[in-house]
């Protein structure tokens, strides 16, 4: 019984350290100049508008775009349970905020973080581009950056969305497992 307690304490400690590291990394914004900004999709609210969480990701990308950190915004997401094409909703929101349509790349096949990374990598290579900035929730930054890097994208910056809610605690805890799974399973894109 004592061994179980020691093992449980060790696992809890490691999990806690990993969660803190992911949170601190995600909250530490830094953005060099890049070829594009990658914004992973999220929930679309009723009426076909971005949910507050998704809108905050787009607003983070918008700040970078207006600050001329990148000339393109890659919006990625599939059709969610709400029945809306996340990429189309994201593009419409950015256009309504003054981003030219030609500066927005829509990826309607980004059904999860791994798919977004694969598609962003393909787009960059097809257009002889290399670098990206990640714009997402703080707890999602590390895993998104890892996935992009494994797909040959030079991640030169990350910014977190300025929207926090109680469910972020659960999301952060889930990201520890998500990051570990991606770290073990995602293969590097051949150079």
Short description:
By secondary structure, this protein is an alpha/beta fold. The protein is about 50% helix and about 15% strand. α5 runs parallel beside α6.
Which helices and strands, and how do they pair?
Blueprint: H1 2-27, E1 30-31, E2 36-40, E3 44-45, E4 49-50, H2 52-66, E5 73-76, H3 86-96, E6 104-107, H4 113-126, E7 131-136, H5 141-150, E8 154-160, H6 168-185
Parallel strand pairs: 2-5, 2-7, 5-6, 7-8
Antiparallel strand pairs: 1-8, 3-4
Task: Identify the overall geometry.
Answer: globular
Q: For this structure, what is the CATH class?
A: Alpha Beta
**Taking Cα atoms only, what radius of gyration do you get, to the nearest Å?**
17 Å
Strand numbers in spatial order across the main sheet = 1-8-7-2-5-6
Which structural category do the helix and sheet elements fall into?
alpha/beta
Distance between the termini: 50 Å
